[in-house]
Write a structure and sequence with these properties.
This protein has 504 residues and is an alpha+beta fold. It has one domain: Cytochrome p450 (Orthogonal Bundle), CATH 1.10.630.10. It is built from 19 helices and 9 strands. The chain has a 4-stranded mixed sheet. A 3-stranded antiparallel sheet has the order 3-9-8. A two-stranded antiparallel sheet has the order 5-6. The structure holds protoporphyrin IX containing FE. The site of protoporphyrin IX containing FE has 23 residues, from helix 6, helix 13 and helix 19.
Amino acid sequence: MAIFEHLEFFLIIPFIIYLFYLISTRGKTRPEPTNWPLVGMMPAVLQNLHRAHDYITEVLSACGGTFEFKGPWFCNLDMLFTSDPANIHHIFSRNFSNYPKGPDFRKIFEILGDGIFNADFELWEVHRKTTLSLLTHAKFYACLERTVWHKVETGLLPVLDYFSKRGTDFDLQDVFQRFTFDNISKLVLDYDPCSLCVELPYVACEKAFSNVVEPLLYRHIIPESLWKLQTWLKIATEKKLIDAAEAFDEFIYPHVCLKKGDDRKEGDFNLLTAFAKVYEEKNIGSSAGLRDFLRDTSLNLMFAGRDTTSTCLTWLFWLIAVNPLAEIKIRQEIETELHLKEDKKWRCFSVDESRKLKYLHGALCESLRLFPPVALEHKAPVRPDVLPSGHYIKQNGKIIFSFYSVGRMEAVWGKDCLEFRPERWISASGGIKHEPSYKFPAFNVGPRTCLGKDMAFIQMKMVAATIIYHYNIKLVEGHPVSPRDSIILQARDGLRVRLFKRHV
Ligand code: HEM
């Protein structure tokens, strides 16, 4: 009976919101949403749901960088939105201990279990220390180079060659997602699923990553009771999360079981084996507990490594396609810095070579500034606080940070903030210019800064340099390219391109 009462409630509320939506859309031009009785600002959210990130940016720009959103009554959806660097610095760095991820974050991202993204306090410290020691291990970069090289040679180049010879267009975002999935799977699980090959096979786990990012955004927007009801009924976007969790388990568990113990050859480097060793030494849980723990740890690292890197590469290639001068400059830099003018042979690029490519680095930073793959962050204070912007935030009050908006604020990046200018990142002495993370938060800010930043840049430069050196890239005319409304800022309909070989 209680459930049916809830269902009536959930049928009436959308109807009322729809009525307000119709009224609110008549002749309105200002971006700030109207706060209606009963339904709060929800009508404006529904009206702009298809362009959530741009709408948030418009509202934040009009309100000086911070905005109080009022949700429908009794739905616990009031939130403070901010893109103000002073607030970001205050929360992520200066008052870090007052702003853990908190229980709401954990509820929304329950699919990630006890992995690093959901962890706070001691558990987070164990994860952070262990992951950091592994990613800075002497053998790690050699292993990364081997893995990326192998994937470029056996996956990426054959697929690009296939499409360019046939003259057909294809989705470059899909190719990047398969590339990063195979790579991170090899690095974490020591298993290459070979999803990147000319047949472009359907791999359930690979697709599951793309399927979870939209429902995870909706969990931020719709009332918790509603998405919990959907989970219980196994319907709507929640069904996608249930299916994705199954796909993750089926893919990861067999490799977690296989990789226990240190039975590897000298010179091999394997993240999961190293993790298992550390956790066994620290004696965390029973053997079943360890197995689940390793599943969560692997899933978090795969989530960290697959979507972010492939999304950044996708936007880089869109940005250089619409700014052809930048493509020419990247190619010139490759040929000059790596002395390749006379060398027209097929080749891959090494870690050391990729470090020399400063202009390409600037282009990637521009891609991350304008399209940060992690476009939103979410925090709640343990104790009430007053932010540098003057806004009061109560205990457990929700704060949403729009990293997408930070990069598009004139007050932060100047009048040309919407322009793609890799030169912005080159210092007077020709090095890479440093920008504080609260102004450039793509890799997060403060003690929880991304641990894979260096690895991501190396991988992205190796891939981008290989493609730009070997091919001219043309966008398919008329194909729409806009950000997807999801927790990771993928291109909604992919990136359809045609490639033309430069060297025969
Ligand atoms: C362009 C690529 C990347 C971007 C833009 C990026 C961005 C981010 C962001 C915004 C966070 C904070 C997330 C949160 O706390 O909710 C984060 C955390 C993290 N990233 Fe990355 N990331 C990238 C690539 C990678 C790669 C390749 C790895 C390696 C596996 C990685 C590993 C991690 C880890 C372990 C954390 C958790 C840090 C912590 O909570 O202490 N990332 N990253």
